[in-house]
Amino acid sequence: MILKTFLLAIAQILQLVIFAYTWVIIIGAVLSFVRPDPYNKLVQVIYRLTEPVYQYIRKYIPTTFGGLDFAPLIVLLGLQFLDKFLVTLVLRYASTM
Questions:
Q1: Cα–Cα distance between 68 and 17 in angstroms, integer?
Q2: pTM, 2 dp
Q3: Which positions, given as ranges, span the membrane (predicted)?
Q4: Distance (Å, rounded) from C-alpha 25 to C-alpha 55?
């Protein structure tokens, strides 16, 4: 009973983190088209949250095609995979306990 509740809580927290980071990625992608003030604190926070992940992906996969950077799309696809596979796996395992 305790392990089931723990696993359900972990899955829900993981889902929340994935959801929040998905929105950070989307906001960062929209901001990249607008060219906001780089000294704005919100822009700096979004940049600091997204750029390390983008750099990691760019190290292994060429993401720029025709002047567009597809790193945010790759990250979003990875997050969706984690949500659909890992979180669902934990939820189903917890429900069988």
A1: 27
A2: 0.86
A3: 7-34, 70-91
A4: 14
28: number of Cβ within 10 Å: 19
DSSP letter, residue 82 = I
Residue 69's DSSP bridge partners are: 64
Reading the block at residue 61, the tokens are 């996969």
Residue type, 82: L
Q: Which residue has the tokens 């929105």?
A: 23
Cβ atoms of 88 and 12 within 8 Å: the answer is: no
pLDDT in tens, 58-94: 999 988 888 888 999 999 999 999 999 998 898 888 8
Q: For 27-62, what is each residue's pLDDT tens digit?
A: 999 998 888 888 999 999 999 999 999 999 999 998
